[in-house]
Amino acid sequence: MADTSIDNQFPIPSLVLGKQGITETATPLVDNASFDIKCDALRLLLACLEQSLERSQSIVHLLQSVCRAWWEGKMEYSDNRDESFARQSFAWAFADLTWQIYQGRLEKPTEPHLFSEHAPIVLIQMATRILIPDPKARSPVPVEETARDYLTLRTFASVPFMDVLEADIQAEAHARQQILEDALRDTSLSSSSRALVLVALQTQPPSRVPLDAAAEEANQKQALKLSKFAQYFYSTEYMKGEPLVAIKASILESSFYTALLKAKRADIFPMTDAKEHDKYLEYIPPMSTLQSNYHERGFPPQWLHDLHLWSMFIFLVDENMEAAVVHFTPDELHDFAAGLELIHPDPDPRYSIIATPQLPSLASPSATTPPPNRTPRVQTALDLYYSWARWVTNWPRLAHATATDMNEFRSEVKKYLLAHVHQIWDNIRLAAQQNRSPTIPDPSAPLTRFDSPRTAYATWVHTIGASHISGTISLPWVACYMGSGIRGGRDGWSSVMQRMLAHEMNQHVGAYCRLYNDYGSVTRDAIEGNLNSVNFPEFWTGVSPQDIQANDGEVRATIKADLLAVAKHERRMADYLGDKLYKSLEDEGGKEGRWIAGALRVYFRSAELFSDMYLTRDVTNTVK
Questions:
Q1: Residue 29, Cα to own-chain centre: how many angstroms?
Q2: Separation CA 535–CA 554 (nearest Å)
Q3: What are phi and psi of 89, to 5 degrees?
Q4: What is the DSSP letter of 159?
Q5: Alpha-carbon distance 165 to 171, whole Å?
Q6: DSSP 8-state secondary structure symbol assigned to residue 435
Q7: Which residues contact 261 (CB under 8 A, 6 or more apart)?
Q8: Residue 528 to residue 318: CA distance in whole angstroms
Q9: What is the pLDDT of residue 550?
Q10: What angle in degrees, to the nearest 10, is found between the helix axes of 301-323 and 119-131?
């Protein structure tokens, strides 16, 4: 598949390459090279026909280097070159690598996820940037860039997993072909540009990589599944106005993140017998990729993957609590809650049962010695949640967070877990009022007014209700992440005003996430005996028990309408504060503030999309 005519157009500096390809002495030079040169080197090395262990190792090393740079958003380009050069070389290299693996000339890289997920995500993001026009791009696009993207698009079409985008790729390629043919009639076109346009139009694209019958059938099923998934989002009211190609590209990219999530699914929490079989994992990545691709021009995959991983572990806490902790006796619940307090104890959080680089534990003996009457299942649950708390607070990309940000995060970790205990207690009290079991589903259970909630609704929804749905824990995690990785070990927020805006905004985000979630799960919560917002007395003003008995459906509709109105109010408040927070970050004037503002928009938009989805679809696993 070597194409010397194209290589002549974009020569690779000889200092990077040995005569037989990448050599041991040349490899460090490639590691330090610009991103486009790395992609060029990978392409040229694959074009070398000699087969050797050194060549195979160098190919894997280069592929890792390219993927790592893209995943972390650390791409720098040579003078007078831009991303289109790198896209062309990487697309051709990936197609060539796929062909050589198929032909048996190369072994598939054994490095975990490199060839199966990491590299495909890079390829899809590159394709998306061509398929979705950048409103801030130069206009008109230079003919040289059009030529390179025309070649790149035709290469994308040779990769089987891109089938879901085939029609869009072909349409964009045809549009660029027309532009290039028109350019040839322009007498002012320079000789070098004319030569490049001719090469682009005359170069034959690589043929589609063949698959065996079973693999082809699986690929077609996957393409059909992803297409239907994209159509579902495209048909929803909350995605109105979004171009279908952006949704399809986002869903395709998401499918590879989902595979990465499934590989980590059982790292901490045991599998459950949920009838949905963790189907919600398929819904986590699209929430961020839809925002990332169309509105933010594609955020680095590492941030997106970490955000997905965080979301999954939040889901799993909720699932495990409902599968195991709900069956504890009152005494066990008290003991379990006391054990959770040790994650960030009062009055001195230094005596935590978990430690982080920023907050080493003083390891108080009383914090590590369980009481003699603790039951085995409580100790098992505490060990599980201590492991989870250690995992999330010692997340590698939080290692350089400040003590201030980490104290805030660890405090919210404890509050998040305790909010589940509070929810379980409230479920027990609600069930006692209804004279039913709090753990056995009852399909005939009516909608019920909770006579004695622990607080008024406004207080509950901004504290326990929001925390239970992870509304308050997630932003402190984001702040630690940004402070550690983007700000170089400083606080995630650069001013007290930013911290106040973030705190206030997060309160409203947590509230509306809980409200939307409750809206979508009114029926399920009534059956399972879970406290829902609609159980609070404030929603029952003017409604009598006789009303619910006489016309359950009408009462539910009225109460849900009130709930949705409150949810929209909380969302408006969050949007108002969010605009101020994003502006404050962007007004910092540097890359840090702009990057964090964009990442926050992806994060908050993900929360919005999940909330919108709950209006029409409840994706929570059923474990009771």
A1: 33
A2: 16
A3: -70, -40
A4: S
A5: 10
A6: T
A7: 281, 284, 285, 308, 309, 312
A8: 14
A9: 65
A10: 120
Four-point Cα dihedral 221, 227, 232, 235, nearest 10: -150
Dist. CA 199–CA 255, nearest whole Å:
35
The pair of three-digit structure tokens given for residue 445, joined into one six-digit string:
């259970």
18 phi/psi in degrees, rounded to 5: -85, 175
What three-state secondary structure class fits 76?
coil
Type of residue at 305: H
SS (H, E, C) 342-366: CCCCCCCHHHCCCCCCCCCCCCCHH
Encode pLDDT of 313-330 as tens digits: 999 999 999 999 999 999
Q: How far, in whole angstroms, is CA 296 from its chain's centroid?
A: 14
Cα separation of 497 and 505, whole Å?
12
Q: Work out the number of other CB atoms within 10 angstroms of the CB of residue 194.
A: 14
- CA separation, residue 144 to residues 59, 148, 172, 246 (Å): 28, 6, 16, 25
What single-letter amino acid sits at 58?
S
Residue from 300, 299, 303 nearest 311 by CA: 303
Give pTM, 2 decimals: 0.91
Tens digits of residue pLDDT in 482-519: 999 999 999 999 999 999 999 999 999 999 999 999 99
Contacts of 429 (CB under 8 A, 6+ apart): 450, 452
Note the pLDDT tens digit of each residue in 33-58.
899 999 999 999 998 867 778 888 88
Residue 522's identity, in one-letter code, is V
> Cα(487)–Cα(401) distance, rounded to whole angstroms?
9
